[in-house]
């Protein structure tokens, strides 16, 4: 497999991007190619950028509480565009929402304080298993 290409996106109105930047840097330092969209992106912006950049996986950072709606919208847009790109999520996500998000199609959910090594290994695992 070539270098894993990851899009890190911040959908919605949440302006706090420190965690997303830390994860993006960790993934880059682990040898992945990272495209960071910046804050306040629409689901359409994120999906279009992922397609234009031909990424292997999308990481979303959501702290605003709108994770259910935003993730659903992004997954629908990906399906509509017949794009088979796995999506993982990080942020402040209530424990009871995690099973719903995974059932919806989110591959993994990382809460605050998740060790960077765990995120890196899981992102690699998801991206590589998609290639198989």
TrEMBL record:
Keywords: Cobalamin, Cobalt, Isomerase, Metal-binding
Gene Ontology molecular function, alphabetical: cobalamin binding; isomerase activity; metal ion binding
B12-binding domain residues: 3-132
Origin superkingdom: Bacteria
PROSITE patterns registered for this protein in UniProt: B12_BINDING
Entry coiled-coil feature ranges: none
Protein name: Methylmalonyl-CoA mutase, C-terminal domain
Organism this protein belongs to: Marinitoga hydrogenitolerans (strain DSM 16785 / JCM 12826 / AT1271)
Organism classification: Bacteria, Thermotogati, Thermotogota, Thermotogae, Petrotogales
